Amino acid sequence: MAAPHPTPPPRRLGGNARLDGTDSALAARATGSSWRDAVLRYYSLAKPGVLYGNVLTAAAGFLFASPARVDWLLFMAVCAGTTLVIGSACVLNNILDRDIDAVMARTRKRATVTGRVEARNAVLYSVLLGVAGVAVLATWTNPLVVAVGLGGYLAYVVLYGMLSKRLSVHGTLVGSISGAAPVLGGYVGASSVLDAGAAIVFLMLFFWQLPAFYSISIYRRDEYAKAGVPVIAVVRGVANTKVQILLYTMAFAAVALLPQPLGLVGWSYSSVMGVLCLGWIVLGVRGLAAAATKRWARLMFRYALLMMTALSVLLAVGPRLP
């Protein structure tokens, strides 16, 4: 139930300027033996940049699906359970990616790579987080939320982390399924149904991730190649990746503007989202001929982070505005 990361995204969201160095920085700081250092070591294993970004979308999905009255106790249960499940998946992903992380400059100081957290302890930590998260969701939410949470967990850890990330250029596509699970979990947490609104929020986050993480694959291309990770920029080249980024940016825009025609939000949402989507598309078009490719890719990624934050806010308040 976490966003894919061809390399742990940016806070960098993730990346990000924000997702991009947070987890490694935390890991680097946690070098002592005191309880505070131990807490930082384990905290960094949960990839806080990725964790909080995903929980933000879960909260947005919940508020989007409850325009009239918000059940705040249910809201807290959904967010808490989702946080624990995503944290569990991120910790386990750290364990699985130790060989890759050891090669990449931005991840080689992670506690699971340096040995400051033993693999066995990390596994136990992951299990505890996962069991606690599922227990919270099963006790205080509904079966759909549990199903989405477990489905996202398996998609991220198994389908993405164990298989497609290492074997296929389509790894980011697979990982985007798990990355879209939190917003869907939040939505069904409030609505208890799978409907058009659920499909829209899921597709929004699914399409959002592709321009974001394809951009990372461009400016981290050399690192991915060295680590043997078959991301699109390595396998198909930068020019093809730029085209894919633009196409998926346009797909995101098309889905992001659907809520108003379906009567789910008002013109305030569409006005702001329309401007933001247009800006992202224009930036994508400029990238096709950009000479400073890595600089453009970083800018594209930062815009993606801005877009995700704005989208989360707009989903939360859109049903409540004209």
TrEMBL record:
- Give the first-level EC class, as a single word: transferase
Q: Where are the transmembrane segments?
A: 49-66, 72-96, 117-138, 144-163, 170-190, 196-216, 268-289, 301-321
Summarizing the function annotation, the protein's role is:
Converts heme B (protoheme IX) to heme O by substitution of the vinyl group on carbon 2 of heme B porphyrin ring with a hydroxyethyl farnesyl side group.
Q: What else is known?
A: Carbon 2 of the heme B porphyrin ring is defined according to the Fischer nomenclature.
Enzyme Commission number, as recorded: 2.5.1.141
The GO biological-process annotations, alphabetized, read as: heme O biosynthetic process
Which CDD domains has this protein been placed in?
PT_UbiA_Cox10
- PROSITE patterns attached here? UBIA (PS00943)
Where in or outside the cell?
Cell membrane; Membrane
Checking InterPro entries in the record gives: Protohaem_IX_farnesylTrfase (IPR006369), UbiA_prenyltransferase (IPR000537), UbiA_prenylTrfase_CS (IPR030470), UbiA_sf (IPR044878)
What Gene Ontology cellular component terms go with this record? plasma membrane
What UniProt keywords apply to this chain's record, in alphabetical order? Cell membrane, Heme biosynthesis, Membrane, Transferase, Transmembrane, Transmembrane helix
> According to its UniProt record, where is this protein mainly located?
membrane
> Per the UniProt entry, what species is this protein from, by scientific name?
Arthrobacter livingstonensis
Its name, as the record gives it, is: Protoheme IX farnesyltransferase
Q: Which Pfam families match?
A: UbiA (PF01040)
Pathway entry: Porphyrin-containing compound metabolism; heme O biosynthesis; heme O from protoheme: step 1/1
Catalysed reaction(s) here are: heme b + (2E,6E)-farnesyl diphosphate + H2O = Fe(II)-heme o + diphosphate
Membrane topology, as annotated, equals: Multi-pass membrane protein
Q: Which family does it belong to?
A: Belongs to the UbiA prenyltransferase family. Protoheme IX farnesyltransferase subfamily.
Q: A Gene Ontology molecular-function term?
A: protoheme IX farnesyltransferase activity
